[in-house]
Amino acid sequence: MKLLLTTIKTDCKYTDYAMRYLYSVVADSPLEVDMKTYGKYELDGHIYEDIMRGQYNIIYFHCNALNERHISNVIEMIKKAVPSTAVVVGGTHVSFETRNYMKANPWVDYVVRGEGETVLFNFLKSVYEYEFDFENIPGLAYRNDDQVIVNNYDDSVDMDDLPFPYDLTDADDDVIYYESMRGNADRTAYTPHLPDARVRSLSLSRVCRELRYFLVKEPERVVFFDRVFNYNSERAFRIFEYLIDNDNGKTTFEFNISGENLDEETVRLLGKAREGLFEFNIDVASTNAEVLAAVGRKENIYQLMYNVTKLLQNGKVKTNISVTAGLPYETEVLFSRSFNKAFGLGEGSPFAIKMLRLGKGTQLRLDADKYGYLATSASPYDVIATDCLTAQEMIRIRSIARVVKAYIGDGGFKAAFPRILTDTGIKPYDLFGKLTDHVHLLGQDSKLGKKENLARILFDLAKELYADFEDDLKLEILKGALHADLESAVSEADIVKFDRDGWDLV
Prior knowledge:
Layout: E1 2-8, H1 14-26, E2 32-38, H2 44-53, E3 58-62, H3 68-81, E4 86-90, H4 92-95, H5 98-104, E5 110-112, H6 116-128, E6 140-144, E7 147-150, E8 175-178, E9 181-182, E10 200-201, H7 204-217, E11 221-224, H8 233-245, E12 252-257, H9 264-270, E13 278-285, H10 289-294, H11 301-314, E14 318-325, H12 332-345, E15 351-355, H13 363-366, E16 374-375, E17 383-385, H14 391-408, H15 416-424, H16 428-442, H17 451-465, H18 473-487, H19 492-501
Parallel strand pairs: 1-2, 1-3, 3-4, 4-5, 8-11, 11-12, 12-13, 13-14, 14-15
Antiparallel strand pairs: 5-6, 6-7, 9-10, 16-17
């Protein structure tokens, strides 16, 4: 009996990691097990043909919101070609509203719901031993004649019972993904979570042992999937301490961090780290108390801002800060205030606007009518409008988000933007709004991929913003700041070409 574990790559990196876990728990079974991941731009027909060559009896597809349609197309072709093939689909995306998913996808035979390792193992065992007692497998959805049967979720997995996912699969990529816990310490209304959201962590000794494996491998980056890595400040402190003491001088470790939980002892410890050892993602979401309460974030925003400011002052940790557009009760004016406050935490740090999606398994999806949400009916369920944001306002914020990403999503233009803000007194959100309008006016939307174009566009806008100043020296100083930003972002050859071509837009 042959089994294939497969998926189609997307920007959702957890999918590949989940596949490694699933492979690690079934690889030693009596089945002949293969694992394949297809590229995000591969044609559905080519994927179908490649799978068919393997003549598999059971095919498991790991699904997320971004690859659902492609996977559905491939499954339909497979089932039409070989109806006897057992098709199983799993992943967070299909773990919610499972009955509707199976009714909309009649070619899917089984769905693995929730944490899939135990569910898939029990399903395969039942099939291999010809028991077919699907009704006794928690976490499984299946078809019985014309009915769709959806079993209750299985118990949450004890993390220490799972094998290390890189024991049986190579960890030779430049970027390696890892999780040291499951569950959700920050049970927000805009993130999907299973009914049992308890945090379950790997033991500290096991985490350090597995981190040692990565330190020896020397990848460029290890990214932790843990939603709130420092939910337990003492545990986070010990792991940071281990990585500082055993730093290989090459690898960066990336974490999702709660700013409110960054105590002073941890901040002092991080000050001892090699610059580049740590990268933190801090989701401010909003600085409005009513908005935070509506989405289940009861953070003390002033404590968060104080802690993040202290973290940035030590200068050792790269910190990515984000806010979210489309949250309940937030008008564009209120959103602009959140943007300005969060941006002010660390001018020069990478910054992003996240656009809200009403994904399956989120409370906001259930409360859509309460807040007047209009969203796309197909994944990834982008918000179109709310009671407080019109469709045009959402489009404007989405456009500003693209410009923000182009200019400072990677921490670029560290000198230029603080200079403009200081010289003109303009608020950050207003500046990026004007910059977005300027990009559209010049028809430069398609040229945001090159730093040289970004510098020329920003300087062109600055000439307008500085027009009321009688002191031309300020504009020349800004030009110097922009040139310095370019020198740190592009090659020496590109700088020579830029200087030859000049500052005028072409």
